[in-house]
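Subject: for your reference before the review

Hello V.,

The reviewers asked for a structural picture of the protein, and I figured it would be easier to keep everything in one thread rather than splitting it across files. Below is the amino acid sequence we used in the manuscript, unchanged from the supplementary table.
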Amino acid sequence: MVILKILFYFILLRSIVTEPNINLYHTDWVNNNKNDIVFPHDCLHVISSLEKETDPYQIVSYCLSELPSKWNIQENTINQKFTFAELYQQNITSQQLYLWSAPIDVIEQYQLYLNERSSTGEFQFFYNCTLPRFGP
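And here is what came back from the structure prediction:
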């Protein structure tokens, strides 16, 4: 009976397949003021386990802190670009956006668009980044 349990657990454990999922947060940060105050944005939160027993888990945030106006941002022509209206027409859910590693901000905005179907959100864009890329 013990051998049967071990065999069952071995088969069950082998059937578990995981994939990493990376979702950014604070990607819609806009600095309307032209001052030198910089807020963290485009954050990646990672769960890290530590050796200490008193605090075994910790969330480490990696955020950009430079002004986006200093960057030379070019139009993304590599990945597919969808408007929220196009996603809605294709019956894409916010859960699917999450599984596609969309930024949390975009997922929240899309869910609001689905709930309210306002015309203000139909021209917002989602870039479908595939592995190994992620981001807004």
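For the response letter, the relevant points are probably these. The chain has one domain: 21-128. The beta strands are 41-49, 57-64, 80-83, 125-128.

Happy to draft the paragraph if you're swamped.

O.
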